[in-house]
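Next comes the chain:
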Amino acid sequence: MSRTISDQLLDTLKAVDVDRIYGIPGDTIDTLMESIRKDDDVEFVVCRHEENAAFMASGQARVTGKLAVVCACQGPGANNLLNGLADAAGDRIPVLAITGQVDSDRIGSGMPQESSQLKLFDDIALFNAEARTPENLMEMLHIAINAAMTYRGVAHISIPSDVMLQKEVPFPLPIAVTDHDAVIVPGDSALDEAAKVIEAAKRPMILYGEGARGAAEQVVALSEKLQAPLIHTTRSKDIIDNHHPNVLGGIGIMGAHPSNHALHEGDLLIVVGCNFAWRQFYPQGVPIVKIDCNPVHLATHIPVDHPILGDASVSVEGLMSRVSAREDDSFLVKSRKPLVKMIDEFTFRAKKTKPGKPVHPAAVVHAISTQMSEDAIVCGDSGSTTIWFNNIARLNGKQRFIWSANLATLGGGMPQAIGASFAAPDTQVVMIAGDGGFQMSIQDLVTAAMYERPIKCFVLNNGCYRFIEFEEASHDGNVAAGTKFLNPDYAALAEACFCKGISVGEYDDLLPAIEAAFAHDGPVVVDCHVDPDALLIPPAVTPGMAANYVKSEIKSWFTAPSDDAKRIEKMAAKFKKS
């Protein structure tokens, strides 16, 4: 039987180490499905929602650093990919999306399920094309692979079903080019100027981001040489051992009080591979040295006095050779435990609650982080759970933390954990999510069971969108609205999905549940009922925020329970009786 262009497409993907494709079949990718069926070297992971398929591909690529692939049919299938791919695009994760399309001669005619897929993907794909002929498809595929791997992001190819059916054509297999094949070496003049301002500073600080991955040793060495505090973004939390005495914690609303306090006490900020967006958390009126391999980032979010265009490790090494070692560590010592640290010590203490009371979320996160393996991969979801994890867990430099850093979408944690587990089958993969995020992608819990992915899912169940309540109160002084919801029994639901389900109702249930989850050889859901009123104190409370909090509290005293709250109470009472 003659080979199709679809068979050739698969050979091309295998040449760049693709051995798995996530997705859901559909009529315009039937030919691709047949090619996968016949090929023993490529596994197809059938998902329950295309958004989750994209998250799984993203989770895999985050762990391996290699290209991951997701596919979907035209129209609704392609539409459903968008949020998962937008997450990968925001965090610069190399994912190739292949979508089917109606026959070439019917494009634009308003065929059922047809959509303008190039327009659809235009905002998130760094390469976005629709194949016209077999030769064109192969060229576009090679470009898409290089674009995703070099620029780090999402590439998309739309393939009409009639093109996919045509015979293979003479075309060489790709020799992939990635961002690891070359580094940007900074200029001497940029390093010399930055070194001068560093030498003049008395209280330097270092903020490092995802771009410093692979440069941890150099960043730590610079910190020790300058006696400079180390501050990370939430995404870069796992790059440097959190137990290192120079690591103060994270920047921003999800960060720690000591690190945010130190940022406003120093007289120089060195930013390494970080493009943190929220200006209010940066120091004002101090010189900023910023290292980045993307020139756009050197002009984004904050004014940069001394930009260094270059690879993080090479650039930091260049600074190291130009600056003097310091004996004075007074600023570093003072920064480790300022007065504001007491706020974190109160907020994030693993409190033991009384019998019959829901567990404090800090206790849950602390117990998970101290019991997980030394090389665990933790997949977080967005919202308040990320704040708890960022401030309580102390990662050792071998453990990984994955989450939707830029899009900050709910629902990514569990499917990304599945993808991470495929990527590292012998490594413990832990997911920590709120009930809001977990519910969004729960349809693919059964996929974890079907493919025997032993992910450990911990759900902080507080019956509300807690972080949104915080935003409603702090932004406008409003009473929480539209944030309460009715939850299923997640432990029972896990059992219905062929997973192990464990319920935690109070503090004494917690440690045995975590130990049982980690001891089980398959996927587990631990439904942790946590205190919905657990206090979160952000690290940068402005007078306006404080006033809004008070305003919100006063309003709530005089506000009757919402209709949603009444419905939830009614349903709970009804099923308790039955």
About this structure: Residues 34 and 558 are 63 Å apart (CA to CA). The domain at 348-577 is CATH 3.40.50.970 (Rossmann fold). The two ends are 62 Å apart (CA to CA).
